[in-house]
Amino acid sequence: MTMRALRLTSHDAPPVLTKHPVPAPAPGQIRVRIHACGLNFADLLMIKGSYQDTPALPFTLGMEVAGIVDALGPGVERPAIGARVAVYGGQGGLAEYGCFDADRALPLPDGLTFEAGAAFQIAYGTSHLALAHRARLLPGETLLVLGAAGGVGLTAVEIGKTMGARVIACARGKAKLEAARIAGADHLIDAETDDIRSMTKDLGGADVVYDPVGGDQFTAAFRACRPEARILSIGFASGEVPQIPANHLLVKNLTVMGLYWGGYLSFAPNALTGSLRTLLDWAADGRIAPRAHHTYPFERAMEGMDLLRTRRSTGKVVVTM
Question: What is the DSSP letter of 56?
Answer without folding.
Answer: P
